Amino acid sequence: MKEIISDITPLDFQWKTYDPFLFCAHHYDKYPEGNEIQGPNASLKNRSLGRDFTLKDGWRMYHGQQIPGFPVHPHRGFETITIVLEGFVDHSDSMKAGGRYGEGDVQWMTAGKGMQHSEMFPCIYKNKSNTLHLFQVWLNLPKRNKFVEPDYKMLWSEDIPVYEETDETGNSICIKIIAGAYNGIKSLSPPTNSWANDPNNNVNILIIKLSPGAKWSLDETNINTIRTLYYYKGNGLNICDKDISVNNSFKIKQDKNIIIENKDEESFLLFLQGNPINEPIAQHGPFVMNTQEEITQAFKDYQETEFGGWPWNSPEPVHSEKDIRFAQFSDGRIEKRN
Fold first, then answer.
1. Sheet holding 88-93, edge to edge
2. Which domains does the chain have, with CATH numbers?
3. What is the pLDDT of residues 245-284, one digit of tens each?
4. Coil, helix or strand at residue 159
5. What pTM was estimated for this model as a whole?
């Protein structure tokens, strides 16, 4: 008999995922005050600039030289879903789209046939620290959609549906519905060509907050669906008489109702669920295709076309400090939020 929970795995910077997901990164950096160019107002000496993934003084520069983050790089064949819990991200891409989002916002980007983008983490506050806390989830595309036109959507925090309930003893459960549906409440629509756009694919992405002592019931789902919980903050859970410590992920049996009991502190979990695409995966760095020949072609196409080039004046651009939350799309549309 299959276990109710399985594949318990300690969490680190990069999290194990399952088809249709490819990858999940967990970024948590306590950046200091910002300087005049929105970088950290601190010495960068003795950091491996360009590849700084070591947590030093509570933060990392990643591939950034002056601004933390990921300067211009290409993608093809999949999607990125960037869920920002704290702090801000500056997006810029080869389609001349850009924006700044954070504090609960989500960006959903379909790379499709190929694009370049940068994701920088500006230190916008000069008089206080600039904590950044985010997840980036990679969601695969089926073969038929790997060459669609690139696209992205902003899911602004105040628009993302939230489901709230109390258990039988009055403890609260709060669920932010980023993709799919929960208890009859539907998420905002993902991009048109996403695997998540078809409800038959049963994709759910949820952020779950459990108050101390709360009991959350997770209903059974389709036998083909794979679902995983990532327990990233709290002081312990109990599931079917099994204790789960914080900073672990685990798969949940899909055809059973599961009761998850929280212990004596607030707990926070990321939930990923979906029916697998069940196609071959060939991956090399930023390209995810079905065959190695397609990977080779992706590199060739990028070398020849640069996927439209790079219209920004820096490989690690940041936006004006005047606009805190905004998105400018390739068709000229601009969305602004307070």
1. 69-75, 115-120, 88-93, 98-102, 325-328, 334-337
2. 21-159+298-320 (2.60.120.10), 162-274 (2.60.120.10)
3. 999 999 999 888 899 999 999 999 999 999 999 999 999 9
4. helix
5. 0.96
